[in-house]
Amino acid sequence: MNQRKRIWLEKTINSSYNNIAGLVVLKNGKTVYENYYNGYTAANAIHVASVTKSIFSALIGIAIEKGYIKSIDQKVLDFFPDYTIKEGEKKSITIKNMLTMTAPYKYKSEPYEKFFTSDNWIKFALDLLGGKGKIEEFTYSAIVGTHILSGILVKATGQSVFDFATKYLF
Question: How many CB atoms are closer than 10 A to CB 21?
Fold first, then answer.
């Protein structure tokens, strides 16, 4: 990385972005820049919050481009044929609804503890899909929607999300 650009980047981050923990730049599989800020090191665990949603959006796009998924208009439940929903539940929720957070859920706030202690995160997430909310109405989902998208990617590609992302995104 050009020394002048590196100095400018670090000065900008240090003066204007106190929420950046670290930055790693890879080029052709090699690290060309790595630095940590605001007291963080490479060893710190960092909550990535909604960054995951952007990564999943990119991965779904790649899966469509590669032919693993037909389109964002495919129904979520098409990927889980063995999953049985209750009568009257939302069968028409699409990948697009998941990506745009316009899928309804059966909760007012996500049940984090119950989710993370469940034996099957995907089934637990699917159990929460639907409810009385309207499809196309924004409903924030920090974890449930992302885990459903994870399940879709695994079912569609036959690979773990990590393997698929490593091969096609990272």
Answer: 16
